[in-house]
Amino acid sequence: MAGVRDAAHGVHLRAVEDQDLGVFFDHQADPEASEMAAFPARGKGQFAAHWAKIRADDTNILRTIVADGTVAGNIVSWEQDGQRLLGYWVGRGHWGRGVATQALAQFVRQVTARPLYAHVAVHNVGSIRVLEKCAFRRDRAQEAKAPAPDDGIEELIFVLDA
């Protein structure tokens, strides 16, 4: 349930609030985090337009990750090409503390649509481990059907089945 605190780790999810966006911007602007995610940072205008668009779409599910009382990142789910996808971004200051794992575990209890897909850069071993801990499995059949990446960055596709 949104807003319910995980007492063991001080991690909970809540609705995205306007004041969260500045923290999200800083997280995605971190060069090391951007490289790890294999996702280029957006400028302020692009970032604001993107978040305005995804917040306006009622089919998207958007949550702020709060760890020990501070905004630690975000986790989102959206429909694309007939699939329900998810993505998350946790600020570097929260890496290695189980924040992403706890947030994803809570999120998949809230978002019951299955199958649920996640794409992750092959070099992002931290995210791969988070997905595996939350019962996602690599979907080699989906990977085989995926077109070659335009940017040359190899992605793995993970799925959480029913």
Verbal overview:
This protein has 162 residues and is α+β, with helices and mostly antiparallel strands. The chain has one domain (11-160): Gcn5-related N-acetyltransferase (GNAT) (Aminopeptidase). It has 6 helices and 7 strands. The chain has a 7-stranded mixed beta sheet with strand order 1-2-3-4-5-7-6, sandwiched between helices. It is globular, with a radius of gyration of 15 Å.
Question: Whole-number radius of gyration?
Answer: 15 Å
The amount of helix comes to 25-40%
Q: Provide the succession of SSEs.
A: EHHHEEEHEHEHE
Strand content: 25-35%
Strand order of the largest sheet: 1-2-3-4-5-7-6
The CATH topology assignment is Aminopeptidase
| Number of separate structural domains | 1
Superfamily (CATH H level) name: Gcn5-related N-acetyltransferase (GNAT)
SS field, number of helical segments: 6
What is the CATH level 1 assignment?
Alpha Beta
What structural keywords apply?
7 strands, Aminopeptidase, 7-stranded mixed beta sheet, 162 residues
Short overview:
This protein is an alpha+beta fold and 162 residues long. The chain contains six helices and seven strands; from the N terminus they run E-H-H-H-E-E-E-H-E-H-E-H-E.
Topology at a glance:
Layout: E1 11-15, H1 20-29, H2 31-37, H3 44-56, E2 61-67, E3 70-80, E4 83-90, H4 99-110, E5 116-121, H5 125-133, E6 137-138, H6 140-145, E7 155-160
Parallel strand pairs: 4-5
Antiparallel strand pairs: 1-2, 2-3, 3-4, 5-7, 6-7
